[in-house]
């Protein structure tokens, strides 16, 4: 894959009018100024601008599959990212308005009372996000233009070398097809943004930046190595490629612990503090200076997995959340409250799984291999419906991305894009390979737990009789 200087993205669902717009930009997973096609368009085609982000109360309520949409780690990273964007916008005389309410209720009010003529939004693969966009459109004046741009993926839908309906059923076919495709060059940060749309006195909801409303869970006590925001994302991007780590990525990427064993770009990518194109361009720059090898190429390979799952979500829409996934075959699993609870609370009979879940619960992050191990455990050892696991990840992961998360869970449950059917990991073998000395377990569960658990380990990993397991 290579990048090319092509025309601005054409993934816009409207034609732009000659008259400059009074614009509202509803932000989502695109919390950055650089490489942002929407801001580039706004700087050319709008005369006034209102930037809005909606924090929705139902994100904090218990939702489907016994999890809430947004847990404390995600919230911390999100608030940091929003605050960083607000600060960066102040240099342009702009402000990010945070609304606490449902987007489909707040935004039509703002659009209609402020005579907004054009509404911008990043094109999103999530079914809920798309439904909200439609609901907002329906409540607004028919003269208001609704414009979407691709900001999250490497390609726009028009740049894909096939129609979305023809997205290949497996990643390897997808990769072959896009291998020689060009992705658009990274856009510079805009140099100018239009002035703010003046607020009206009745805009109670948005009159001031409410940094921390009482009803939000307290997150400031959390210690977390990841800090949200575009600047922090750029720092991580810069520091990763300033080192030689990319040349050994493939060898160490499956390690369970260690900051340097993978890129750690995912939380910034998921919140849009970094774009996938920025990452790929930085990788290509690194390769042009220091040479490419199998490891550095593997980072591109993983970014293509990300790309694949994004278009997969676009294509399959609600099927992303179906028990039978995209295959129509129902797995032989069910809902077992106590098993699920033991998995979430890190009290299964499997010490490695418990250590990994403790890591997730305490930090909001887990390595890719760790995610595969705990997902396989929930599905194949505890025989639980995979959607409960996906929903718990949704709550916990600071890099939660609807397409990647649900796509990976489907894959492991055997109802997704895996031509080989489901993937069951032998937990004892995984522990032998990735934690032979028990150091990871010790780090997260303590040495006493390691000794106690390792006594249980041998017998229980050899064959837990699930009939004896409390349900
Ligand atoms: C069950 C399960 C759920 C997951 N949920 C998410 C999620 O919600 N959000 C998320 O970003 N990743 C998810 N992943 C993918 C992967 O685990 C993380 O992207 C990765 O661990 C993040 O760390 P990193 O940035 O250091 O990754 P690196 O190994 O450095 O990879 C670089 C980038 O490639 C992409 N990538 C890596 N692995 C995958 C993968 N398996 N599928 C798609 N893209 C990938 C990510 O954007 C990542 O940042 C999930 C994996 C599994 C098995």
UniProtKB/TrEMBL annotation:
Q: Enumerate the spans annotated as Photolyase/cryptochrome alpha/beta domain.
A: 21-154
Among InterPro entries, the record links this protein to: Cry_DASH, Crypto/Photolyase_FAD-like_sf, Crypto/Photolyase_N_sf, Cryptochr/Photolyase_FAD-bd, Cryptochrome/DNA_photolyase_1, DNA_photolyase_N, Rossmann-like_a/b/a_fold
Q: Which keywords fit this entry according to its UniProt record?
A: Chromophore, FAD, Flavoprotein
Cofactor binding, note field: Binds 1 FAD per subunit.
Please verify whether the record's keywords include Secreted. no
Question: What cofactor does its activity depend on?
Answer: FAD; (6R)-5,10-methylene-5,6,7,8-tetrahydrofolate
| Family annotation (SUPFAM superfamilies) | Cryptochrome/photolyase FAD-binding domain, Cryptochrome/photolyase, N-terminal domain
Which Pfam family, giving just one, matches this sequence? Answer: DNA_photolyase
What does the function comment of this entry state?
Answer: May have a photoreceptor function.
Family statement:
Belongs to the DNA photolyase class-1 family.
Cross-referenced PANTHER family:
CRYPTOCHROME, CRYPTOCHROME DASH
- Protein name, UniProt field: Cryptochrome DASH
UniProt organism field: Shewanella inventionis
